């Protein structure tokens, strides 16, 4: 075979591979765009300062004032939605992997990925910081936490491995006064339902909870995933009700959920910059 024919064959092969790659990427992009939920609508966005580019959790301390944490520093940042500025910093611990935050009656709770929980009192004066160990460890990779006012308890969620089983990931209750954990999970998420299966595949899907919260108006539980940005809705009994794929343009790594007193939903996401979105969730 002559060199000219070899060059022609190689060139034709490269053109063919390029075309296959282009159409594959195009089809995957179109499939991704079509799968993004139209029920999750961003209404307003706040860009966070550089020190909160890795914002990992948010909770309302009072109206228009969010308590925020980020992955690495043992500092609570109070972010004012009116001024779009951090108005106060509350140190509470050394560097670490801080992933969850909850507020109740001017007390702030912070969850570390290894299961340690910090309880911070007297935040308007000299903070009193207490730390509590739980049965969880870094193997469980704890990320979600909120204060369940309806039952006066902290609820925390497992991201990776559950304490008791490989068949589910649990949401567990902790007494905010004694800081003791109820041994049995309040809710068990198996992620075996049809909605979790990848499209056109028979294998079961996966889900890695990065945050949880409860809608006080509907009693539904919301569960975020940051790895493949999604928002899961559980009914009041913990049964999966809806799964929404989030747009990476707005939610590159969503890890924070909070409701204000009017029932408005806020989702925070890590990124350059970190952001907080007020979201309209059209689930009717």
| Backbone CA Rg | 22 Å
Task: Summarize the amount of helix as a percent range.
Answer: 10-25%
Order of helices and strands, N to C?
HEEEEEEEEEEEEEEEEEEEE
Strand content: 35-45%
Cα distance spanning the termini:
67 Å
Task: Work out the number of β strands.
Answer: 20
Mean residue pLDDT:
89
User: Strands of the largest sheet, in order across it?
Assistant: 1-20-19-18
Query: What class do helices, strands and sheet pairing give?
Result: mainly beta
Identify the overall geometry: globular
Q: How many helices in DSSP terms? A: 1
The poorly predicted ranges are: 23-32
Sheet with most strands:
4 strands, antiparallel
Secondary structure topology:
Layout: H1 3-35, E1 40-47, E2 55-62, E3 65-70, E4 75-80, E5 85-91, E6 98-104, E7 107-112, E8 117-121, E9 128-132, E10 142-148, E11 153-158, E12 169-174, E13 187-189, E14 209-214, E15 221-225, E16 230-234, E17 240-245, E18 253-259, E19 265-270, E20 275-281
Antiparallel strand pairs: 1-20, 2-3, 3-4, 4-5, 6-7, 7-8, 8-9, 10-11, 11-12, 12-13, 14-15, 15-16, 16-17, 18-19, 19-20
């Amino acid at each position: 075979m002559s060199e000219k024919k070899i060059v022609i064959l190689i060139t034709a092969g490269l053109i063919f591979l390029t075309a296959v790659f282009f159409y594959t990427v195009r089809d995957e992009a179109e499939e991704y765009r079509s799968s993004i939920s139209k029920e999750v609508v961003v209404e307003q966005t706040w860009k966070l300062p550089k020190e909160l580019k890795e914002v990992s959790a948010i909770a309302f301390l009072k109206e228009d004032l969010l308590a925020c944490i980020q992955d690495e520093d043992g500092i609570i940042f109070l972010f004012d939605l009116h001024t779009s500025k951090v108005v106060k910093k509350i140190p509470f611990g050394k560097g670490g992997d801080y992933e969850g935050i909850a507020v109740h009656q001017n007390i702030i709770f912070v969850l570390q990925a290894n299961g340690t929980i910090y309880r911070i009192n007297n935040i308007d004066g000299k903070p009193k910081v207490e730390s509590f160990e739980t049965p969880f460890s870094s193997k469980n990779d704890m990320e979600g936490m909120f204060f369940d006012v309806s039952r006066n308890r902290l609820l925390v969620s497992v991201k990776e491995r559950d304490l008791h089983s490989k068949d589910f990931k649990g949401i567990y209750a902790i007494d905010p006064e004694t800081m003791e954990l109820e041994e049995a999970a309040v809710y068990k998420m198996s992620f075996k339902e049809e909605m979790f299966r990848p499209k056109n595949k028979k294998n079961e899907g996966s889900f890695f909870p990065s945050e949880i919260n409860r809608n006080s108006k509907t009693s539904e539980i919301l569960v975020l995933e940051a790895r493949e940005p999604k928002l899961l809705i559980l009914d009041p009994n913990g049964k999966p009700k809806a799964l929404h794929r989030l747009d990476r343009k707005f939610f590159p790594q969503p890890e924070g959920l909070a409701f204000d007193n009017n029932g408005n939903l806020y989702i925070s996401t890590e990124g350059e910059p970190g952001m907080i979105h007020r979201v309209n969730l059209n689930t009717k």
